């Protein structure tokens, strides 16, 4: 579904991705694990088109999208939930969802079906987004992204600022949505328990390159945990 070939990218003269290669099969949940500053978020921003690739190639379902702007990639089916969620705090939950539809030029008559996938949001539809807890805001950000009917979701550090009690709810929601919509997910995360519970394949990233592939069960290895947590 996504193929990244020898891609370099960064911020101005600061190169962060150094010839990265990654293949994400259709319908898979793939995790990217690594310390801060290794290029995880930069990779997602480059795939989405918020950062330009200075070299290499990005394909979506076999189509070269390397030079397309972010809004064109979104129309082709890439959804993006950024770090920090970026919901509209003054707007109600319902209006946030309507904005997700409007951003793709879609009618909002599909919102009821989206809310059915996120029952925790049903009682919050009239509440301002900024009044929600961190976990509720993350559920809202995911639901808003799905309003655009993406085939791929890029999910950046979703556990940031969320109580552990709601993390399992997010894992269960995403697995249910994957089964229902044949969704492809590329997840950037540092929480080992979360990335293990959600991902079928996990890649580690170091200094802007994919270092190795791991089976989720390998995250039970204490030496490996220490490698990524410093514990």
Structure at a glance:
This protein has eight helices and ten strands.
Please, could you describe this protein's structure?
By secondary structure, the protein is an alpha/beta fold. It has a domain at 30-38 and 78-229: 3-Layer(aba) Sandwich (Rossmann fold). Helix content is 34%, strand content 27%. The chain contains 8 helices and 10 strands. The protein has helices at 40-48, 70-75, 93-102, 111-117, 134-146, 164-181, 192-198, 222-229; strands at 2-11, 14-24, 29-33, 53-60, 63-64, 78-81, 152-156, 184-189, 201-206, 209-214. The strands form 2 sheets. Strands 6-7-8-3-9-10 form a 6-stranded mixed beta sheet, with helices on both faces. A 4-stranded antiparallel beta sheet has the order 2-1-4-5, with helices on one face. The radius of gyration is 17 Å and the shape is globular. The chain starts with a strand and ends with a helix. The model has no long low-confidence stretch (mean pLDDT 85).
